[in-house]
Structures are given as structure tokens and as C-alpha cells.
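Narrative of activities, Objective 1.

The group set out to show that a structural description can be obtained from nothing but a protein's sequence at a throughput compatible with the screening campaign. Below is one input-output pair from the validation batch, recorded exactly as produced.
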Amino acid sequence: MFKFIVAVLIIFSSVIQANESEVLSVDRSVSRNIKLSFPNDRNITPKLSDFEINNYVLMSNEEGERWAVITITNLSSGNRMLEEQHLLALFANGDRRSPLEYKLRFAGNETQSFTVSFGESKFPILLIYSSNER
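Output recorded for this entry:
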């Protein structure tokens, strides 16, 4: 009976530890005024759009997942659809990556906040930008 209780406790503690490593933490932000000059040999750029990023909060966990809460304004007076290709994240190793598949409808001049995933990376996100910011 004692061995059974110990086994259950070990399994229970490993489940709790696994869940703790999945919890997202807010990352320290980097000034948006910083000038970074990573090479962009493949000329990766965000798709042209009428979207402007107002601000964002970067998050990650111990498993390397990279997430962001982003606030964006549709600068057009007409309806627009934000898609993942409209945004790029610049990682600390110079990689540029769009968020995972995402679509969000905006009315004219509307501002919205939303959360997106940029997948997993051992390098943190330094900044997020659209075609109107770089």
C-alpha cells in the first residue's frame, strides 16, 4: 500500500511540474526605439497592410513557446482582415517569423488587442512589426 501511495505522489508531482513549465511569463520589453541591424538575406518582410501596431507585450515559458498580446489599429476607413503575414517577429538570433495561422476582422479605424503564438524558439522575440513600422 505504501509503494502505491508513493507512486501516486511521484506521478502527481511530475504532472504539477509539467504544468508549471507551460505557464507563460511576461518577458522584459526592449525599447521600440532600438536600432537592430540583423541581415535579412531572404528579404523577409510583412505583407503590405493598413495596420499599425500600437503596442505589444511579449510572453514565453520554460518550454520555449513565444506569445504576444498585440494592440493594432486599422488605419483604413474600410473593413480589413488581419492575417498572420501582416506581422513579423524579430528574434534574438536574427530570424524573422510570422505568428502561427491567425485571422481577425477589423472595422474601419478600429483598434483591437489579441493574443498570438509565434511557435517555439530558444531565442526571445526582440520586436514585432508590420509593414508600417520598419
